[in-house]
Amino acid sequence: MFILSAFADEISPDPREQIAVLQKCRIRFIEFRSVYNTNCLALNDAQVREFKKMLDDAGIGVSAIGSPIGKVPIDASFEEHLRRFERALELCSLLGTRNIRIFSFYPPGNDPQFDPTHWPQHRQEVVHRLTVITQRAAQAGVTLFHENEHRIYGDSPQRVVDLLRTVNHSALRAAYDAANYAYCGYDPVEAWEMTKEYTAHFHIKDWKKGGHAAGHAYGLLAGYGDGNIAHSIRDAVQRNYHGFAVLEPHLRGGGPTGGVTGPDLFPCAVEAFRSILRDCGGQEG
C-alpha cells in the first residue's frame, strides 16, 4: 500500500497554494520542509500551529518532518546540531507525525573538492552522530528516514547499508531516492537491491544521468529518467510495502535546500507516478 505525500513547498512557498494543489491532486499528506521560504526548524510555535490548523481544515496529515538534520559538515558543532534535532522532535509533537527525514553529513568544511575515497577516516564520527540521534529519536517514539543525498556520507548504496547495519536500530530506516542515486552516478536498480531490506520510505523524482553536467539541472517526470523507478516499486509491491511515497519532482530545478516544480507541473508529476504505480500492481492508500 502506497500512501502519497509531497514536499509541497515545491508547489509554492504559500501554504494555501500548497494545500489547494494537494487537494486537486487528491494527496492527503505533506512532507513538511518549509512555508513562506522559511525552513520548518526556523518557524516558531505560533507559525507551526497556524499551519497545522490549515492542514487540519483541509484534511491533510504530515508524513514526516522534512528536516535538514545531518546536512552540515561532519566537523561542525554536534551539540549545536543536536539542539536543532530537538526542535525537529518538537515539530513531530506539534504536527502529529512520528517520522523525520535526515541525512548523514557533508565532508569536513563542506569542501566541494572532497575526495569520497577519504570518507573512511570520518566514518566513526558519522556513525557516532547518527547513533546518538537515533537513540534520542527512539526515546521519543520517532523513526528517522535517511535520504541518500548527493555529497553526504550516505550518498552511495554501500555506505547506506554500512550505516544502517552499524547503527542497527529500528528507529533508523532508509528513504530510497532513485533520482539521487542516478545523479551521483550509481545504478538505482543495484542500489535498490542493496538497500531494500532497510527501506521504509520512498522519495519520487527521476533524473537523467549526466544531466547536471550537460546543464540540465532539473528533475524529470517519474519514468522518464534513469531512476528505473518501476523496478523498485514493482519489487516493493511484491514485498507488501506499506508506507509513504513522497513526490519531490524538482521539475524546475533543485538544490541543497529543496526544489521547485510549480502548481502547474506538480499534477503532471503526480499522475506520472500514479501511472507507474498502476502498471506495477500497486495500491494507493
What do these coordinates show?
The chain is 38% helix and 17% strand. It has 285 residues and is α/β, with parallel strands linked by helices. It has one domain (2-279): TIM Barrel. A six-stranded parallel sheet has the order 1-10-9-8-7-6. It has a two-stranded parallel ribbon with strand order 2-5. The protein is globular and about 50 Å long. The chain starts with a strand and ends in a 6-residue tail after the last helix.
| Helix segment tally | 9
Give the CATH architecture. Answer: Alpha-Beta Barrel
Low-confidence stretches: none
Number of structural domains: 1
**Order of strands across the main sheet:** 1-10-9-8-7-6
Report Rg.
18 Å
> What class would the helix/strand composition place it in?
alpha/beta
How many runs of DSSP E, i.e. beta strands? 12
CATH class: Alpha Beta
**H and E string:** EHEEEHEHEHEHEHHEHEEEH
Q: Tell me the β content.
A: 15-25%
Distance between the termini: 6 Å
Give the rounded overall mean pLDDT.
Answer: 96
Helix content: 25-40%
Overall geometry? globular
* The CATH homology group name: Divalent-metal-dependent TIM barrel enzymes
Task: Report the sheet with the most strands, covering strand number, pairing sense and barrel closure.
Answer: 6 strands, parallel
Question: Could you name the CATH topology?
Answer: TIM Barrel
